[in-house]
Design brief:
This protein is α/β, with parallel strands linked by helices and 347 residues long. The protein contains 11 helices and 12 strands. The strands form 2 sheets. An 8-stranded mixed beta sheet has the order 6-7-8-3-9-10-12-11, with helices on both faces. Strand 9 and strand 10 form a beta hairpin. Helix 3 packs parallel to helix 5 and helix 4 crosses helix 5. The longest helix is centred in the middle third of the chain and has 18 residues. It is globular and about 65 Å long. The chain starts with 8 loop residues before the first strand and ends in a 20-residue tail after the last strand.
Length: 347
């Protein structure tokens, strides 16, 4: 598999694999493995947001957890700020996590209901022994103001807040130690639509103010286009397309990316009536027994005999001097110039 070779990357992921063993019998012998992530490579540059999209079960969240070493990698390499953290012992990785934080998907289950907001936000400061008690208390108030919450509510419990406010508490907790890299694991999917734009705007403002770098995992493509600088598309544990957001949305070069974009509703009735819908046949194959060759070929209308036998490498279609456009498809060139109806961005 070809590797996107870039410079000035805060995070570099190379051939990352996360396999979960399948065990059967009284002796619990391994008879197979679920290949949740199976050879993922990409870079995340300092100060940028990389959007990671794909349908449920494609390995997005597992990739995010593995990058932070919250899940053990089967193989591969993750480099953070020039340091290869793949083989760090837990004691060394614990100190590194001060600079790498996560915003979880569900603000209802990711906050301890028995802890006050103050206890939740101050916990990372206590773990890493940052500041004096007075400085920690001041830091909590500062963080609450930063995410748009009233510091007077510092002694309230999570059940006294709405879903959007709880997610702001989770964001404040993630920011407590001044991290440089944050993984957002579908941070808006559990929120009301009316609140999603507010949280996305908050994340964008924080990125600008604090110089943050994000891996933004989501399935809402319009939100991904709004917040991301570049977009990576995953299918069955692999990255199938990676480029800047406008290239991915306006000139997708992989049939799966085109199918994803065609499924997103468009607010403009005229565009909705004339656009081409791409209906994928069949179900997503099992990650425990992925197809040979291109993993998308059983559902691809353009698949040939080559697709069923030869695994396409992730290759750069961009010409010399142009921004990179990585695609894992034997026939990507036939799609790259075709226009598609991309979803409207939010205001």
């Amino acid at each position: 598999m070809s590797t996107p070779a870039e410079t000035n990357a805060l995070v570099q992921v190379r051939d990352l694999k996360v396999h979960f063993p399948i065990r059967k019998g009284l002796l619990r012998r391994q008879v197979g493995a679920v290949r949740a992530v199976d050879g993922v490579s990409f870079d995340i540059f300092k100060g940028e947001t990389l959007g990671l999209v794909g349908e449920s079960g494609c390995g997005k969240s597992t990739t995010g957890l593995a990058i932070l070493r919250l899940l053990n990698m089967t193989s591969g390499q993750v480099t953070f700020d020039g340091q290869d953290i793949s083989a760090f012992p837990e004691s060394r990785m614990r100190a590194m996590r001060r600079h790498m934080m996560m915003i979880f998907q569900d603000p209802y289950s990711s906050l301890n209901p028995r802890m006050t907001v103050n206890s939740i936000i101050v916990e990372p400061l206590n773990v890493f022994q940052i500041g004096t008690p007075a400085e920690r208390a001041e830091r909590v108030r500062e963080l609450m103001e930063l995410v748009g919450l009233n510091p007077a509510f510092v002694n309230r419990y999570p059940h006294e807040f709405s879903g959007g406010q709880r997610q702001r508490i989770g964001i404040a907790r993630a920011l407590a130690t001044n991290p440089s890299f944050i993984v957002g694991d579908e941070p808006i999917s559990a929120l009301d639509v009316s609140i999603q734009a507010q949280v996305v705007n908050l994340l964008s403002d924080l990125k600008r103010k604090l110089g943050l770098t994000y891996l933004f995992i989501a399935h809402d493509l319009s939100m991904v286009r709004y917040i991301s600088d570049r977009v990576a598309v995953m299918y069955l544990g692999r990255v199938v397309e990676l480029s800047n957001r406008n290239t991915v949305f306006d000139h997708p070069a992989h049939p799966y990316t085109r199918a994803l974009l065609s499924a997103v509703p468009i607010a403009n009735p005229k565009r909705e009536r004339v656009r081409q819908r791409i209906i994928l046949e069949g179900d997503v194959p099992s990650p425990a027994n992925p197809p040979s060759g291109c993993r998308f070929h059983p559902r691809c209308a353009f698949a040939t005999a080559e697709c069923s036998t030869v695994d396409p490498p992730l290759r750069n279609l961009a010409t010399s001097g142009a921004e990179s456009h990585w695609v894992a498809c034997h026939y990507a060139e036939r799609f790259i110039q075709e226009e598609v109806s991309a979803p409207d961005t939010i205001a």
